[in-house]
Structure formats: structure tokens, C-alpha cells
Amino acid sequence: MVAMQLEPIGPNIWVTNGTDIKFMGLLLGTRSTIVRLSDGGMWMHSPVSYNSDLAAEVEDLGPVRFLVAPNVYHHFFLKEWQDHYPDAELIGPRDLPAKRPDLIFSALFDDRRCDPWSSEIDRVVFEGSRAFDEHVFFHRASRTAILTDLIVNVRLDKQTTLGRLIAHIEGVAYPNGRTPLLYRLGMQDRAAGAKAVAAILEWGATQAVISHGEWFREHATQELRKRFAWLPL
Ligand SMILES: [Fe+2]
């Protein structure tokens, strides 16, 4: 019996942890959030590395309909999923096609028809630093906010000595991980970021998934407010 890779976290929503990646001296886990839409199609946020067992688990739940790239950094595994599911629609940020001309996008965020799932999943774009713009989602039925890199919360036990130091400097060490220092320093328009976070808090999420590190299984709105306190909320 192979261990299941999808963990159910609410009605029609699952998370799966992928392979670890090395980024700026840190060992980061990866995580994808997967939603079954009311028509039965599967919506995959920031797909983790492809493996056939995971794909079979997703397919058991429904056909893969959407592959979602939330920012210009989470594109490493899109190609392998697109190759396996050429009929799935890939939707991502405006600047990603230039970076990844090998990917085929069916729409870009801010196009007129970029949220075909809008009756079930809301989206807010966190702006203020062009380099770090991120599209944040909210699955209404499960009250789940879905963030990518805006908050990082990594356990230190797997890090090297240098990694632990970097995690502390970046402010991303569990349990107090928040927005990486690099992002905070790159923020040109804090008011725009604060406006986006206000809209995110307005959702009243009870849980919040992040892509790297421990996510927030309860009290998500309070946790998010605390971890975005560097902005003028
Ligand atoms: Fe990331």
C-alpha cells in the first residue's frame, strides 16, 4: 500500500507536499493546493513535481482542468504537468510567458476571462513590488486562503547552520515565519500591499496554506494579520 500523497483539509480541497528545493541557502519544502470545482474539474495551485502516483490520486478525484501559477517564481514543475495534461488550462501572471516561452498559457491574470472559477475561488493580487507580485486565492467552501511566497515558515531542524542563520535574518523561521526580508525590502508601495492584505483578511479565512514551511491550520486570519504586521494595515 503506497502512502497517499493528497491530504484532505476540508470539503473538496487537498494539499500535497512535493520535493524539497534549495533556495538562497535554505532547504524549502514545496506544497500544492488542489481544489475540486463544483463541475468536478480539478484546480491545481502551484503544482509540485510530477509523479504518476500523485497524478493518479488527482485523476481519481476528477479531470485536471486548471494549472495555476501564482507568481513568476513558481513555474518549475508546470511543464511536466502540462505535458501530461495538455487539455488543462494553464493560467498565470502576466510576466511569466516571457520567462517561460515553452509553456502554453490559456489566459493570464488580469485578462477578462482569467478567473473561470470565480464563483468558488476568489483572487486578490498582492502588488507593490513588481518583482514579487503574487496572486492569492480563497476557496470559499473550505474558508482556505492560499498563499505562495508571501509568508514562509520553515522548521530549522533540517537546515544547515548557514540555513538557520539565513532563516532568522529573513524572518522565515518557524513558528514565527513571515514575509521574507528580501520581499519586505523590495516593497516600493506599502500602501498597495496593505490594501491587498486588507482584502485577504476580509475573507475571514480559518486556514491558510503556504507553499514553503508549516501552514496555518487554525486561526488563519489572526495568523495572517500578525505575519503581515510589517505593512501599514
Ligand atoms: Fe516559492
Q: How many beta-strand runs?
A: 13
> Unreliable runs, pLDDT <50, ≥5 residues?
none
Going by helix content, strand content and strand pairing, the class is: alpha/beta
What's the CATH C level? Alpha Beta
Q: Catalogue the ligands.
A: fe (ii) ion
Please name the fourth-level CATH homologous superfamily: Ribonuclease Z/Hydroxyacylglutathione hydrolase-like
Large-scale geometry: globular
Order of helices and strands: EEEEEEHEHEHEEEEHHHEH
**Biggest pleated sheet:** 7 strands, mixed
Helix content: 10-25%
Average of per-residue pLDDT values: 96
Strand content: 15-25%
> What's the number of structural domains?
1
Named CATH topology: Metallo-beta-lactamase, Chain A
Q: What's the end-to-end separation, in Å?
A: 48 Å
Radius of gyration: 17 Å
CATH architecture: 4-Layer Sandwich
Number of helices: 7
Strand order of the biggest β-sheet = 1-2-5-6-7-8-9
Give a structural overview:
This protein is of the alpha/beta class and 233 residues long. It has a single domain, classed as Ribonuclease Z/Hydroxyacylglutathione hydrolase-like (Metallo-beta-lactamase, Chain A, 4-Layer Sandwich). It contains seven helices and 13 strands. The strands form three sheets. A seven-stranded mixed β-sheet has the order 1-2-5-6-7-8-9. Strands 10-11-12-13 form a four-stranded mixed β-sheet, covered by helices on one side. β11 (134-139) and β12 form a beta hairpin. The longest helix is centred in the last third of the chain and has 13 residues, at 190-202. It is globular. The N and C termini lie far apart (48 Å). The mean pLDDT is 96. Bound molecules: fe (ii) ion (FE2). Fe (ii) ion is lined by residues 73-74, 148-149, 211-212.
